[in-house]
Amino acid sequence: MPFPTDELIMQTGRGLVDQLQTLFGKHAGMRPVHAKGVLLTGIFTPSSAASALSTAPHFRSSTPPTPIIVRFSNSTGIPNIPDTDANADPRGIAVRFNLGLNSKGRRAHTDIIAHSTPFFPTRTGGEFLEFLKAIEATQAGGGGGGPNPVEQFLGAHPAALAFVQAPKPAPSSFAREAYFGVNAVKLIGPDGKVTYVRYRIVPQDGVDVLSSEEVKAKGDNYLHDELAARLSTSGGGAFSFKLLAQVAEEGDITDDATVHWPEERALVELGVVRVEGLVGEEESKKEQKYIIFDPIPRVEGIEPSEDPLLEMRAAVYLVSGQQRRAA
């Protein structure tokens, strides 16, 4: 996973990491956002429709299921944020498809990163940095009697206001939450056809959310405890999600994560994400520091769209990953 070559992207990426750590604190070995998380193992089995849309190796229905690593997480860079805290939403999921060895003998993989709100507050990393600075200024008491810096920012950025105001109910389980890939990618078919899609990861058992009263009755680690219970023998074992592709039509905006596509757009099932077990505690501590999920596909059959957030997110994750590994 190479660093972006654009120095402005890298400068903004470093600024975003610094600003997130200003807001949430510096926690050695932890991510600056979605710090509290859990790693699991499983497999991905593609559908026949997947191989018609993309030549990616994990989408080929003729091959065995692909081993995967899954990470569920809470929002913010606070490692011990209670699962019941409203700021822990949106929840996140990252899925790594382990593709074996490439032609150079190196381990190959590709990732999907998604969260439980179907869009993002800003189109660019620079705007997101402005938003974070406005939050810091507001916390410091900025405003002088008029609208505070966050209110000013949201007044000038309706997409960010829509994101802030979007309902974010707490799920009863990470396994009962729907997750949305906010950045479009391009699937390249066997005939070379390009299809712009956004991923969705939808629980096969259905979405289930808690009321505010139900959340108050839960413990600080209820989501993580529930996973352990669910995956135990007595809890029933593995659980699954459908990996869906929402397909863009002519005229749909593919380079702006703040813009929704109409709900009537076709949803194609690409396969099933089956989560089978928790990674052991010691291995998880090591791997959480080491693993850097990549928002850019970097695999045959899938290409990034022109969305400017993709390179920016890659820069942020790489800067963060370097820090974690150094810690």
State Rg.
19 Å
CATH architecture: Beta Barrel
Strand coverage percent = 15-25%
Looking at CATH, which topology would you report? Answer: Catalase HpII,  Chain A, domain 1
Helix content: 25-40%
Order of helices and strands: HEHEEEHHHEEEHHEEHEH
Helix and strand content put the structural class at: alpha+beta
Query: In one word, what is the shape?
Result: globular
- CATH superfamily membership, which one? Catalase core domain
- Overall pLDDT confidence: 95
State the CATH class.
Answer: Mainly Beta
Number of helices: 9
Main sheet attributes: strand count, strand direction, barrel closure: 10 strands, antiparallel
- Counted up, domains total 1
Give the end-to-end Cα distance, rounded to a whole number of Å.
20 Å
What can you tell me about this protein's structure?
The protein is of the alpha+beta class and 327 residues long. The chain has helices at residues 7-24, 48-53, 125-139, 149-156, 158-165, 212-216, 222-231, 281-290, 309-326; strands at 37-46, 66-73, 92-101, 107-115, 179-180, 185-188, 194-203, 239-247, 267-278, 302-304. Strands 1, 2, 3, 4, 5, 6, 7, 8, 9 and 10 form a ten-stranded antiparallel β-sheet that branches.
Strand and helix layout:
Elements: H1 7-24, E1 37-46, H2 48-53, E2 66-73, E3 92-101, E4 107-115, H3 125-139, H4 149-156, H5 158-165, E5 179-180, E6 185-188, E7 194-203, H6 212-216, H7 222-231, E8 239-247, E9 267-278, H8 281-290, E10 302-304, H9 309-326
Antiparallel strand pairs: 1-2, 1-9, 2-3, 3-4, 5-7, 6-7, 6-10, 7-8, 8-9
Helix pairs in contact: 1-3, 1-9, 3-4, 4-5
